[in-house]
Amino acid sequence: MRILAPTLSHLERSLSDLSTQVTLAALDALRGTRLLLHAAGVAAPDGRVLALVGPSGRGKTTASRHLGLHYGYVSDETVAVDPDLTVYPYRKPLSIIVEGKPFKEQIAPSDLGLLPLPDAPLRLAGITLLDRDPDTDTPGAFPVDLIDAICEMTPQISYLPDLPSPLQYVARIADQIGGVTRLIYRDAADLPALVEAMFAAPAPNAQPWTVAPAAATTGPWRCAEVDDAILVDGRACILREGTVTALDHRGALAWTMCLEGARTEQITEAAVTAFGEPDGSTPHELMTQTLQELVEHGLLIRA
């Protein structure tokens, strides 16, 4: 029997698969111990790290290639963060899409001229959501509401439910860095100047939040047990069975009053006080609909 030597394409495919498997194994080893962002990361000379979050295909590797020529290359794939903002680099080869090939090539950072890490402790200074818009007239970094940021980042956080008090964990990190931003840019070549401005700008004030109160054992409604929940500016963000749900102001008011054991009539009266008379339906009809939606989302049970 003749043994055929592997072709170059087979070797390249194997290296691509190996890179994926090593990354998955590394993430699994850290589950529940750190915030694991699906993000590119670059470091300023003083060790401050910016994590650029986005799903596959959003441009993280391209961003790494452009930014890594000006800042220390941390990762093009995963940024791991401790509660004290310590960042752990993952300087893997960059996974580059090559036209005509069904797999990504793995290219060493040094071969692309990317800079080494600075001689300073790495500490998270910012989390930004990558958003390329070739037609934008206003490129730059813009603040994102905390609940909206959590909802958008949830698919880009590995093993979120395994963290202790997961939503609070993310919110506390956001507190320390001044919140999450969205980086809107036209082209990757514009990123170095935009990131330079982000590193130079003072950290903004973080958005206040509170932990949702414990559920009462009285009243006509029972709130389902949740893994974690926070309240932000009259809205609620709830993690239950691995799913994050955001409630608008009316839904959050209804849910939190159900936590306190309130009756439907009390919740309706509070909603009218807070939001005024609704258009197109009576206050009772609208609140009945709101409560039913909470039931359908598995957050409420009629006692």
From TrEMBL:
SUPFAM superfamilies with a match to the protein in the record: PEP carboxykinase-like
Domain of life: Bacteria
Protein name: Coenzyme PQQ synthesis protein D (PqqD)
Organism annotation: Microbacterium mcarthurae
